[in-house]
Design goal:
Layout: E1 2-10, H1 17-25, E2 32-38, H2 45-55, E3 59-63, H3 70-80, E4 83-88, E5 94-95, H4 99-110, E6 114-116, E7 119-123, E8 126-130, E9 164-167, H5 168-172, H6 187-197, E10 201-203, E11 209-213, H7 229-242, H8 247-267, H9 274-290, H10 293-301, H11 305-330
Parallel strand pairs: 1-2, 1-4, 2-3, 6-10, 7-11
Antiparallel strand pairs: 4-9, 5-11, 6-9, 7-8
């Protein structure tokens, strides 16, 4: 068995892929493999990956027949992975030289299910180190214990799959695959499941991944309907958390986080195309209407006035819609209610 498999999806990133591929070369070892997944790119990315398959030690080029999104591309890589450990990188980001070896040494020394690493956020020429919101470093802990408290940023709010390394036993248990077809927020159900069901983890620092923000091809920069997959992602978080044996403890965190993400998107709704903005309001209102209302009340009471007010207005919209629907159904066709 190889020591490490690195899953790297690519989609139309010909401008940035050379940096990612060069950084993999500077991390290569005889017992590492790099699973380069082309998610049906339509620019020059496939040619770059074909050359990498010939020249980059350990590279394996995997091609999708149709575009499936980041979650599906990562799953393709996971299905092909042969390593004892698993890591991720996105095709528009890059690694510091030797970062993979250092992270591998850390997880082997700690002998835990997974480790989480800090990362460097890159916005234009600006660099800032983003820390794992849990401490102390290099101390093994219970992942479930890192979900709470509900009112503070915790490990499930640091969902980046590439900010860490994972033992293969998690893959064998079905904990590393993503919800197929999710175009955005695919890492949210994933990180929640990992923290609920894995047995051990540790933050280890090691900010050797450079995360490129503001990329024009990133879904975070595109205001089309794919952005709305966050609703489906958080609906999954809520349903799976509600089925957990500690749902009474964990649901307040899941609901509050969902509310914060809804408020974020509604607060910047002008970046969406008009039909998508309307659908965002409708889906968000419906989501608030289906949450456990007592838990939602407590979540809104704990938030700042601006976000809480926005969400309460949305919830009133959901209630008004539900009230209007039976009345409309009860009115015979052609009769004015």
């Amino acid at each position: 068995m190889l020591k490490l498999s690195v899953v790297v999806p690519f989609f139309n990133v010909q401008t940035y892929a050379p940096d990612a591929l060069k950084s993999l070369e500077l991390n290569a070892r005889d017992d590492f493999e790099f699973l380069l997944v082309d998610d049906r790119s339509t620019d020059g990315t496939p040619a770059l990956l074909e050359r990498a398959a010939r020249e980059l030690p350990g590279a394996v080029h995997l091609r999708h027949g149709r575009n499936g999104g980041l979650a599906t591309a990562r799953n393709t890589g996971l299905d092909a992975a042969r390593g004892e450990y698993i890591a991720f990188l996105d095709g528009d980001d890059w690694l510091a030289p030797g970062h993979l070896a250092r992270t591998l040494a850390a997880i082997e020394a700690l002998n835990c299910d997974f480790v989480r690493t800090d990362h460097v956020q890159c916005t234009g020429r600006t660099r800032s180190v983003q820390r794992v919101p849990f401490g102390p470093e290099s101390v093994v802990a219970d992942p479930r214990g890192a979900i709470l408290p509900a009112g503070r940023t915790t490990s499930v709010d640091y969902p980046y799959a590439w900010a860490g390394m994972y033992h293969r036993r998690l893959l064998d248990r079905g904990l590393l695959h993503f919800t197929d077809g999710l175009r955005t927020a695919e890492d949210r159900p994933w990180i929640w499941r990992l923290h609920r069901e894995a047995e051990s983890f540790a933050p280890v620092g090691l900010p050797g991944i450079f995360y490129r923000r503001g990329v024009s091809t990133s879904l975070t920069q595109i205001g089309d309907e794919r952005q709305l997959d966050f609703i489906r992602a958080f609906d999954q978080v809520l349903s799976e958390t509600a089925a957990d044996h500690e749902s009474d403890l964990l649901l307040p965190k899941a609901v509050r986080t969902y509310c914060a993400i809804i408020a974020h998107h509604i607060g910047s709704i002008e970046r969406f195309e008009a039909p998508v903005a309307r659908k965002l309001r409708s889906l968000s209102a419906a989501a608030l209407g289906t949450m456990p209302q007592d838990v939602l009340d407590r979540a809104l009471d704990s938030m700042d006035a601006d976000r809480a007010g926005l969400l309460r207005r949305l919830r009133r919209r959901a209630r008004a819609t539900r009230t209007a629907a039976p009345a409309a159904a009860a009115t015979p066709a052609g009769v004015t209610a």
